[in-house]
Design brief:
The complex is a heterodimer of chains A (about 575) and B (about 190).
Chain A (H helix, E strand, L loop, with lengths): L1 H30 L7 H14 L10 H24 L16 H12 L9 H4 L2 H31 L9 H27 L9 E4 L6 E4 L5 H9 L20 H25 L3 H26 L4 H4 L3 E2 L19 H14 L14 H12 L10 H21 L4 E2 L2 E2 L2 H27 L1 H4 L6 H16 L14 H31 L15 H40 L1
Antiparallel strand pairs in A: 1-2, 4-5
Helix pairs in contact in A: 1-7, 1-9, 2-7, 3-4, 3-6, 3-18, 4-18, 6-7, 6-8, 6-18, 7-8, 8-9, 9-10, 9-12, 10-12, 10-13, 10-19, 12-13, 13-17, 13-19, 14-15, 14-19, 15-17, 15-18, 17-18, 17-19
Chain B lengths: L1 H33 L1 H4 L3 E4 L2 E5 L39 H18 L6 E2 L13 E2 L1 H6 L1 H8 L3 H10 L1 E2 L10 E3 H12 L3
Antiparallel strand pairs in B: 1-2, 4-6, 5-6
Classes of the chains: A mainly alpha (about 575), B mainly alpha (about 190).
Chain lengths: ~575, ~190
């Protein structure tokens, strides 16, 4: 079995690598306003939207108006999502007559979806009406992803332009990405998902009479495929159902699992090549892609190994967890029989490397080291592919840190793709690297120190601490997955995590845009003998190393208190049997 | 900031109409024509009545039936209105006690009193609605079901083998048995005995 798991995973990575370049170039065409094969269909709609909004797409701005526009649009999105949830009982498409969402949950959810986090403190099928799922949540799945790509586009232009005081037009970027890239991909993907069994209906829940007891089983349905498609593609991750892509109506077959897993990484990986194309040096895009892939595979291999191995405590009870032709074996608590532990571990790594946060298995029930890896990937700052847009702008910030450190070693002014990196750039980069780490550690420290933070732990001991650490890691880095045993639908966690998500998204996007403005204004530096080439294997390894070192220095002590302690307890208990 | 308000408002309304209303409606319209069975929940009809969805597990408890995986939905198992995993951690005493109890019960009811129980039969699924078990878990139950229905166990075993779905396209996922479809086939074979 593990051998087949490996074939499936290798196929995913192969398709990802092959598909990311053409898609990345397509996105570059869209961002640079060139005609694409979709232009005849999409351009009239795009022009209509921009005209109604009073926007001249050709009018570009500096970084401050760009940032203001992004913040205004996102703030309005938060308000709209909040309002729709609070009013869903009087809005249409609510066949189950669900009441208004509680204020704390509605606040958390509004922030969560606007910030591309998609932390879910609610159970989808039992809390949100069809209208809320569509007009509030699905919409944010599109536009939060497009906002992330817009911020990235601005940063890329900062590198690509010289002596320029503009970095683009936010409204045009937002509209083009949504209509040219996300909407067509999601539409096609949604239909493929339906063909495999993902439901798509506006009817009330199904009612069936079960076979053995002849009793009524109500089955929640809804407009699911349209939401699942975009939540996978836009690194959103907020599912229609409580159990996300573990639910058979979100992810019914191994084929949907393959495609949904691929969709998690696809756009984020493609954007590396968008960068290469837009700075007119494709090698730079490949180098970033390679650094991400290196880190990804380094985390994937141990994760699959851990989850395909048994929980030692179960072996002592006469439970057969050995892989064979007849069963996948491994750690099956919280996993689905159609996927098995290898595919579940692959998904867990993909969804936390990218800041997607959808799950096809319950991370809370992973073995201690199997749960450590997703948590660590989130804590690296969501730069291993990462969120669409946000992942690459995070990685570009790490690239600046890398050339800076390399420059210190040889005593030269650091440069990256033709731009001198100076004190201002390094200040902005430091903010981007340090802020999420501070949010995670301070937030976790507060939560485990107050009764409100420890009252709703789902598991005792070190694992309970891991639940809290995971929650703040997920919120600060806008991932959205959870150790879901933690009861987070209460004012304490809804509030704390809501504020953390806001800070983790917008307090990082602002320095990134400032960086874009500063870079765009610079002249192009001539490459000299002292310039560190940033497309070589040496740089790839250096960049990956910096990401790991920064993450490890920050989080190893906290991880030691959670999953590492639990691992030692588990192996010690097994040894005494 | 104020100059951003008009485009922010107009574009949010536009995208709400396009991606929040038109897009799901268009997907629904095409799906209803192209894939009506799947879009509607993959219902299984028996004698003109819906006996379940082939994608959503249901509770089987009697010894005449093949059982699915333990379900952590609350308060009743296989409640398809509130999907849920157990979210119990790997060292949680509550998990270990639950697995221990299930393993003992399985051994007692199966007549396989000394053998190790397949892991998916004693661990809760992620969704609480898993429609499948592993082929090992289905075979484990053959002796019990055959005895309870007065059938030859080779016949029941052959039925399990016929209902074992291979990896999709020979490559994706893992082999599995759909419990509802297996039980329906069992009913058809025995005429409800």
């Amino acid at each position: 079995m593990p051998a087949t798991g490996i074939v499936e995973i290798a196929l995913s990575l192969g398709v990802l690598t092959a598909a990311s370049r053409p898609l990345g170039h397509f996105v570059a065409d869209v961002l640079e306003g060139r005609r694409t094969f979709l232009s005849p269909a999409v351009e009239p709609l795009e022009r209509a939207c921009l005209r109604a909004a009073g926007v001249d797409a050709a009018h570009e701005t500096g970084w401050k108006p760009y940032a203001t526009a992004m913040l205004a649009f996102n703030l309005l999105g938060v308000l709209a999502v909040y309002a729709i949830q609070r009013l869903q009982h009087v809005l249409p498409l609510n066949p189950r007559h669900l009441g208004a969402v509680a204020p704390d949950v509605a606040f958390n959810t509004a922030v969560s979806f606007a910030s591309n986090t998609n932390w879910q403190s609610y159970g989808g099928e039992s809390a949100m009406s069809y209208f809320t799922q569509m007009a509030a949540l699905t919409v944010q799945n599109f536009v939060s992803a497009a906002s992330g790509i817009a911020v990235l586009a601005a940063l890329i232009r900062g590198f690509a332009r010289k002596s320029s005081d503009t970095i683009g037009n936010f409204w045009a970027d937002l509209t083009r990405v949504t209509l040219h890239v996300l909407l067509p991909l999601a539409f096609v993907f949604a239909l493929v998902l339906v063909s495999q069994g993902v439901v798509q209906s506006f009817g009330p829940p199904l009612t069936v009479r079960t076979l053995e007891s002849q009793s009524v089983q109500d089955i929640a349905i809804g407009p699911v495929a349209s939401q699942v498609a975009i939540k996978q593609l836009g690194t959103n991750g907020g599912g229609f159902f409580n159990t996300n892509s573990a639910h058979p109506f979100e992810n019914p077959t191994p084929f949907t699992n393959f495609l949904e897993g691929l969709a998690i990484l696809l756009l984020a990986a493609a954007l590396c090549h968008t960068f290469g194309r837009m700075v007119s040096d494709e090698r730079q895009g490949w180098a970033l892609f390679a650094a991400m892939m290196l880190l990804f595979v380094a985390m994937l291999v141990p994760a699959v190994r851990v989850e395909t191995s048994p929980n030692p405590a179960l072996a002592a009870m006469g439970v057969d967890s050995a892989p064979s032709l007849l069963q996948p074996g491994g750690n099956m608590e919280g996993k689905e029989a159609r996927f098995g532990p290898a595919s579940s571990a692959w998904w867990a790594v993909a969804t936390t490397a990218a800041s997607n946060g959808s799950v096809n298995a319950m991370h809370d029930s992973f073995l201690p080291l199997g749960g450590l890896i997703p948590m660590a990937l989130i804590q690296l700052g969501e730069v291993v592919f990462g969120g669409v847009g946000s992942g690459l702008y995070g990685m570009l910030v790490f690239a600046l840190v890398t050339v800076f450190i390399a420059g210190l070693m040889v005593g030269r002014t650091p440069e990256y793709v033709g731009k001198k990196i100076e004190a201002y750039e390094m200040k902005m980069a430091s903010l981007v690297v340090l802020l999420p780490a501070a949010l995670v550690l301070v937030g976790t420290a507060i939560a485990v120190s107050v009764p409100a933070g420890t009252a709703t732990l789902g598991n005792p001991g070190a694992h309970g601490f891991s639940e809290v650490l995971y929650a703040f890691s997920s919120a600060a880095n806008n991932n959205g997955s959870a150790f879901a045993g933690l009861g987070s639908a209460n004012p304490f966690y809804d509030g704390m995590l809501g504020v953390t998500m806001l800070a983790g998204r917008y307090l990082l996007a602002i320095p990134v845009l400032a960086l874009a403005g500063s870079l765009a204004a610079k002249k192009r530096a001539q490459e000299g003998a002292g310039t560190l080439p940033t497309h070589t294997p040496l740089f790839v390894v250096l960049l990956a190393g910096i990401v790991v070192i920064v993450g490890a220095l920050t989080f190893v002590p906290a991880l030691a208190l959670g999953p590492v302690v639990e691992h030692l307890q588990m192996t010690a208990a097994a040894a005494t049997h | 900031m104020f100059s951003s308000l008009r485009p922010a408002f107009v574009l949010l309304v536009s995208f709400t109409l396009i991606t929040g209303v038109a897009y799901p409606l268009a997907v629904t319209a095409v799906a209803r024509v192209a894939f009506p069975q799947q879009a509607g929940g993959s219902l299984v009809r028996v004698a003109g009545r819906s006996a379940g969805s082939r994608l959503i597990g249901q509770e089987f408890a009697g010894e005449r039936w093949f059982h699915g995986r333990p379900s952590a939905t609350s308060p009743k198992p296989y409640d398809a209105m509130v999907s849920s995993g157990s979210n119990l951690g790997p060292t949680n005493p509550a998990l270990l006690a639950a697995v221990h109890k299930r393993a003992e019960e399985e051994r007692a009811s199966s007549g396989n009193s000394t053998k190790a129980v397949p892991v998916d039969l004693v661990t809760a699924s992620g969704s609480g609605l898993d429609p499948h078990v592993s082929p090992a878990a289905a075979r484990w139950q053959v002796a019990r079901v055959a005895r309870a229905r007065g059938l030859d166990s080779t016949v029941v075993r052959a039925l399990v083998d016929r209902h074992t779905e291979p990896r999709q396209f020979g490559l994706l996922g893992v082999p599995r048995v759909n419990v509802l479809e297996l039980n329906l086939a069992l009913e058809r074979m025995t005429g409800g005995r």
